[in-house]
Write a structure and sequence with these properties.
Elements: H1 15-30, H2 42-56, H3 63-76, E1 81-82, E2 88-89, E3 96-99, E4 102-106, H4 113-120, H5 124-128, E5 134-138, E6 141-144, H6 150-160, H7 183-201, H8 209-219, E7 223-226, H9 230-238, E8 288-294, E9 317-320, E10 337-339, E11 348-350, E12 353-356
Parallel strand pairs: 8-11
Antiparallel strand pairs: 1-2, 3-6, 4-5, 6-12, 7-12, 8-9, 9-10
Helix pairs in contact: 1-2, 1-3, 2-3, 7-8
């Protein structure tokens, strides 16, 4: 092990150091050392574990190797997540990223449809669902950095004694996005997490203005945890400049888990080059993400009933972001997909926001 990973991660590391650390992590897992180790080996295990965190953000390792590091980290215990707070990210505001109030460009111009068909192939109707392009104004909100993970969803299931639509939702590695969840499962998780955060909100103090607003308005009930509207999702993914993907520029395979380049879901955070302007990861690829919005034609109008949480069950809800086994054209910021809210699939997951309470009427 010392030959493979004999030093701590840090500035000046070479590609040979990264490959050695990757192999050391795989070796620990394969020989069954993911559990308790002797006191003399604790330092070695921790060194290897910290290396795996750095490997997730490597700009030199291919996607498959970064995903392998993520899986190793999941088995060794991922220090990015706080086990005392429902396995949310161990960051300020538990990883919720601030999305400022204001307008953004939503959708696609009708005149661009022919070019998109030529570029990506497929039926023009796929792209016409995104038209017309229009400006939407949103209040400020906070979006989760990652999709909800298996560990986070399991914390909810165990605490509430909740019965999800499928027990397979609990079977993945803890830091992979949860899948096989329905829209209703996702909403139940949101309600549960709202209660947990509101109970602790009154005790939180911060000198940062945004953080103070986050905790104060959670405490007084102005803010809740919910699914994003599709408008909130799209703004968080593409910001205000109408970009096609969350990053600046064209698609490249090292930016998103799509097209079976890994062949399965990956631990969240394995694609740092796919980061959105607001600091969100995995918002393109990995899993489709439920939104709270009913599918309806554009222009987007939140007052026309599409944001109702109590609409009839037959009304399909919008999915965004693409998934690991879909073409990258579906991982574009503007692409719209939908499913019946009771659906569950191996590629259906969700991400949450902290924002104003959504419309609950019929």
């Amino acid at each position: 092990m010392e030959e493979l990973c004999g030093k701590n991660a840090g500035p000046g590391d070479q590609i040979e150091d990264e490959w050695g650390a990757l192999l050391a992590g795989q070796a620990i897992v394969e020989i069954g050392s993911g559990g308790p180790v002797s006191a003399s080996n604790l330092g070695k295990k921790e060194r290897v574990r910290q290396w795996q965190v750095q490997l997730l953000a490597s700009k030199r390792l291919p996607a498959i190797e970064r995903a392998s590091a993520g899986d190793t980290l999941a088995r060794l215990g991922d220090p990015r997540f706080d086990d005392k707070h429902w396995y949310l990210p161990g960051e300020p505001l538990f990883g919720f990223k601030y999305i400022p109030a204001g307008g953004f460009v939503m959708g696609t111009k009708p005149g661009d449809v022919a070019g998109l068909v030529k570029k990506y192939g497929g039926d023009k109707e796929w792209f016409e669902r995104e038209t017309p392009q229009h400006t939407v104004y949103l209040p400020a909100y906070w979006m989760a950095k990652f999709p909800v993970t298996v560990a986070q969803f399991k914390a909810f299931v165990d605490d509430k004694k909740y019965k999800p639509v499928s027990d397979t939702s609990l079977l993945g590695l803890p830091t992979h996005p949860v899948v096989d969840v329905s829209w209703y499962d996702a909403l139940e998780y949101c309600t549960w997490l709202t209660g947990r955060l509101q109970r602790m909100a009154g005790k939180q103090k911060s000198e940062d203005e945004q953080e103070s607003v986050f905790w104060e308005e959670l405490a007084n009930g102005t803010l809740v945890v919910t699914l994003p509207s599709e408008a909130e999702w799209e703004k968080a993914a593409r910001s205000t400049d109408g970009r096609e993907f969350p990053w600046d520029g064209e698609f490249t395979p090292d930016r998103a888990n799509v097209e079976m380049n890994i062949g399965r879901t990956s631990a969240v955070g394995c694609f740092p080059k796919g980061e959105s302007p607001y600091g969100l990861l995995d918002i393109s690829g990995n899993v489709w993400e439920w939104t709270r919005s009913i599918y309806n034609t554009y222009p987007y109008d939140p007052t026309d009933g599409r944001e109702s949480l109590k609409a009839v069950k037959e009304r399909s809800r919008v999915l965004r972001g693409g998934a690991f086994h879909f073409n990258h054209r579906l991982a574009r910021c503007a692409f719209r997909h939908w499913r019946n809210p009771g659906s569950w699939r191996r590629s259906l997951g969700f991400r949450v926001v902290v924002g104003a309470s959504p419309i609950s009427g019929s």
